[in-house]
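hey so u asked for the seq, here:
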Amino acid sequence: MSDAAVQPENAPTYTLWQMVLYMLKLGTIGFGGPVALVGYMHRDLVEERHWISEGDYKEGMALAQLAPGPLAAQVSIYLGYVHYRLIGATLAGLAFVIPSFFMVLAIGWAYVRFGGLPWMQAVFYGVAALVIGIIAMSTKKLTQKSIGRDKLLWAIFVLLTAVTVITQNEVAWLFLASGIVVWLWRVPPKAFKRGGGSGTIGGGMAAIAALPMPAVPAVASTHTLTQIALFFAKAGSFVFGSGLAIVPFLYGGVVTEHRWLNDKQFVDAVAVAMITPGPVVITVAFIGYLIAGLKGAIVAAIGTFVPCYLFTVIPAPYMKKYGKLPAIVAFVDGVTAAAVGAIAGSVIVLAQRSIVDMATALLAIVTAALLWRFKKLQEPVVVAGAALLGLVLYPLLH
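ran it, structure tokens below
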């Protein structure tokens, strides 16, 4: 299929380099984890700049939820693909990931050089609570925009929120099931009788079934770097949901199975990911650095993000070609409602872990109130303030 065959109806209102610079900026100052990051993309690119249509954004969210890999990174890759295809996807994805990669490398060097970072727990105490306020506001906006007044979508939203809170995990098959339910509701089974035309379930199913999935490389070696590459490629290929979903998988392999890190080092690695901007999954670079230095960091990052890239760009042309069919629109709406419900549930789960006393509860509430009152308030300024508060309050309260 040629790129020309899937060109969008409307020409882009921005240049490729504007998109790259935006992703570079978001990767540099975008705090709050995957929930907040996809919220920023919607606010900035859909609502304010109008570079990306609501439909294209929903397609990207649906694809990112259905495919394994980190949510925010996949959405950034897809949004780069929308108008500038493979080169756009590649540059947007790299621009989004590279800033936090270098930040994590610097922290990793300091961690090894000075034997741990005692201040990290204090910073995380303040920033983690603030992040809850940020992502709560982002989720509110995303919910209002994506679900509207549709009762079926609200039912899916509530169900996925509850499941995520109860299981403290994102149940991948429910995303697919939600899409099929909305599909069948809006395009009833009688459509089968028309033989799979452009708006039928049969035609839509054929479109979804046509999406190819890349194979996971199978290479055996006892060399440390090869072990790192294979383990993190597996993590990037089989873990669904937000970047936070990869943490339990990493713990099982890094601490329990391979014993590359101890418990404290792993907890510190997760804290580094939370207090740095960009995708949470960049913690893999910190882990790789602790295991095998600079080479380990590079191999771990490549191993994690290459599957995520492939799972996005390979199905993307089919999503663009068939994404406007009524059946596919219904499917995407169902998956999006499920995704937003899971995101809302993850906010509650994270709040349970991050809001540990009255001080952190007040910080989260004040953050949400400030973002509600001052629409143009810059998140990096708020994050810096929370970090300083953490450094002051944590020693006093603990």
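The two ends are 61 Å apart (CA to CA). Residues 71-113 form the longest helix (43 residues).
lmk if thats what u needed
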